[in-house]
Amino acid sequence: MSRRWLPALLLAAALPLHAAESKPTYGPELERFNYSYPVGHYSFASQGHHMHMAYIDVKPKKQPNGRTVVLLHGKNFCAGTWETTIAALSDAGYRVVAPDQIGFCKSTKPERYQYSFQQLATNTHALLEHLKIGKITLLGHSTGGMLATRYALMYPQQVEQLAMVNPIGLEDWKALGVPYRTPDQWYERELKTSAESIRQYEQATYYAGQWKPEYDKWVNMLAGLFNGAGHERVAWNSALLYDMIFTQPVVYEFGQLKMPTLLLIGTKDNTAIGKDIAPAELKPKLGNYAELGKATAKAIPNATLVEFDDMGHAPQIQDPKRFHEALLKGLADLKH
């Protein structure tokens, strides 16, 4: 498996921009995909690498309420995917910070890195210190929910409120009998990623079978990372991240969360890592969010559950208006 990416990166500069017209093609850090908000970059050293975290930092659009919400994206999402949530929170008086985690989107994808939720939480904490941000409300979606849980456990004095949108890791897939994929096996799988494969998966999982043309923007964003120069490095980091998600469950520690927690769950979600290779008798039992949401609300000591019975994995994208009404009310109702 070759990981000599420098020649490929040099080639990327020569690619015509119109290549994206037929096949979305961006650089390995989404160089040719623009978010709806300005992007900053925080430079730091980690595990012997010099790297940068891309992030969005938006001030309150209306009367500031003195609070900051930090948004943590999912595995197949980016800081830019939060655009409607950023707008809703900013309009409500919040400062909003949304980073791209290392290994994702517009941030560094190192050649070698030991991924852990502790490391990503530490990186995020360093960014917030750089931005001189103290107390926060933490909102994580999908894999970002696993990271938000780990962050809240590591920095409980900083996190005044925790909110999670269809977090994954509400069950331990390996303990349930889902076969293990090695990073090399994930890598071979990720090399085959295309816009069509992403679309098919998201149609079945993310939006409860209800597809809208505007979702293609996010399909092309993700597919563009895997096309053209730099795609091997993107695929390798993606493989390591999947290994982290599968092998580092947080479900056993929900009972240790002390801060008030808001769970926003689309009950038609059926996301489960490795479901595609799970035994036939196990597949129907995995990713049942109609049950997992309720079980998680019981496991977290001070949790409030809001369910969307007609939505899937990404309710903030599927129905932004209804989702953000529930989010803003839920945050206001949480005691902190």
Quick gist of this model?
The chain has helices at residues 6-12, 83-91, 117-130, 143-154, 173-176, 183-190, 195-205, 216-225, 231-247, 289-299, 315-318, 320-333, and strands at 40-46, 49-58, 68-72, 95-99, 136-141, 159-165, 261-266, 303-308. It is α/β, with parallel strands linked by helices.
Secondary structure layout plus pairing:
Elements: H1 6-12, E1 40-46, E2 49-58, E3 68-72, H2 83-91, E4 95-99, H3 117-130, E5 136-141, H4 143-154, E6 159-165, H5 173-176, H6 183-190, H7 195-205, H8 216-225, H9 231-247, E7 261-266, H10 289-299, E8 303-308, H11 315-318, H12 320-333
Parallel strand pairs: 3-4, 3-5, 5-6, 6-7, 7-8
Antiparallel strand pairs: 1-2, 2-4
Architecture overview:
The protein is α/β, with parallel strands linked by helices and 336 residues long. It has helices at 6-12, 83-91, 117-130, 143-154, 173-176, 183-190, 195-205, 216-225, 231-247, 289-299, 315-318, 320-333, and strands at 40-46, 49-58, 68-72, 95-99, 136-141, 159-165, 261-266, 303-308. The chain has one domain (41-333): 3-Layer(aba) Sandwich (Rossmann fold), CATH 3.40.50.1820. It has 12 helices and 8 strands. The N and C termini lie far apart (50 Å).
